[in-house]
Design goal:
Length: 257
């Protein structure tokens, strides 16, 4: 992203980062569901080595830190998120346990077979579920766990409006059985899967954005990109409220074999 042709794009990306910096989470989820996913992991070491990939500002990371003795490295592409992540860690007195670094989830600097657990909520789609699971596997110790949440279809068929939206936004969305088969094929034993309840999207994600949207539009009045971006966000929310019986997020928990 360093050449001139990308500079407008960079500017737009910065605006998106600014917007999501004003929200508690950057994707659907909740502390309760993070803990539910964690509850499926058996025989974690006393002080597990954990990576949280696409950690954002660390909503779920801090919950993990408070419920494991683990050392957690959060990785995110955007320095603004990582700064906020490290600030949040400090506020919660977790800075000795939790550290955020800038990096890309498809180019990790961990030692091979060094991690007990790779966590990633609402982020693996950035490189694709199958590709991410395959690549991350080499960083896990034997019997290490991967825990990811991912957009999933709940039915075999759905209305054209929502099908078209997802084929454009993330064609990698698939049914839960197909995702589980992909996980197994990538070298993991699927341990558990569960669907995130609707309140992970409404109460914990969209409702939290009401104020952020107002502030963002005020700060960027007259900026067509910013206005278009908020319109898109609102459209996505409308679609979710209309079609949430057809899709949502599911957690997928796998053990390396
Ligand atoms: N896990 C957080 C954030 C989810 S949003 C939560 O649930 O709240 C997706 C995150 O992935 C964003 O923070 C985004 O900056 C990050 N991201 C996007 N592409 C990435 C990449 N290639 N490597 C690492 N992080 C990436």
């Amino acid at each position: 992203m360093s050449n001139d042709t990308n500079s407008i794009h960079d500017f737009d990306v910065n605006l998106i980062v600014e917007y999501y910096s004003g929200t508690e989470r950057q994707g659907p989820g909740s502390p309760e569901m993070t803990l539910r996913a964690l509850s499926f992991l058996e025989h974690l070491p006393d002080k597990p080595d954990i990576a949280d990939l696409g950690c954002g500002t660390g909503g779920q990371t801090m919950v993990l830190a408070q419920h494991t003795n683990g050392k957690i490295t959060g990785v995110d592409l955007f320095p603004t998120f990582v700064d906020l992540f490290n600030r949040n860690a400090k506020t919660l007195h977790l800075q000795n346990q939790v550290k955020g670094i800038v990096g890309s989830m498809d180019d990790l600097s961990f030692e091979p077979e060094s991690l007990d657990l790779i966590w990633s909520e609402g982020a693996i789609y950035n490189i694709g579920f199958e590709k991410g699971l395959q690549y991350w596997r080499s960083f896990l110790k034997n019997d290490g766990y991967v825990v990811v949440s991912e957009a999933s279809w709940f039915t075999d068929e759905r209305p054209a409006e929502i099908e078209d939206f997802w084929m454009d936004a993330y064609p990698g969305i698939d049914t839960i059985p197909n995702k589980l088969a992909q996980m197994q094929k990538a070298g993991y034993l699927p341990i558990a899967t569960f669907v995130l309840p609707v309140n992970c999207w409404t109460e914990h994600f969209y409702d939290q954005q009401v104020l952020a949207r107002e502030n963002f539009l005020k700060n960027n009045a007259g900026n067509t990109f910013a206005e278009g971006f908020i319109a898109t966000e609102r459209h996505q929310e409308t679609l979710y409220r209309k079609y949430n019986q057809y899709y949502g997020y599911a957690f997928y928990i796998g053990k390396k074999f």
